[in-house]
Design goal:
alpha+beta, 1 helix, elongated, binds zinc ion
Length: 79
Amino acid sequence: MKSSKTCHRIVLAGEEGCRVLYCEDCKVAELEIGAMSLRLETHAFESLAVMMRQAEQRLALAKAARLEERFNARSGNVH
Ligand SMILES: [Zn+2]
């Protein structure tokens, strides 16, 4: 007897505990974070990736703005 379907999952990124797997049979990306696992269809995964990239950029901008504020406040005290 043959099993009807075997999943061939490949690791796209990360390592044990926090990684992204992809099942070529199901066409599903799997996001593993600790005990949590999120299965996403390819297009949903791509949307998530775009969203994460945007969030990361905004966070970097927010950090830069805060540093600038602190810098301006400090130079303001000097004068
Ligand atoms: Zn599968």
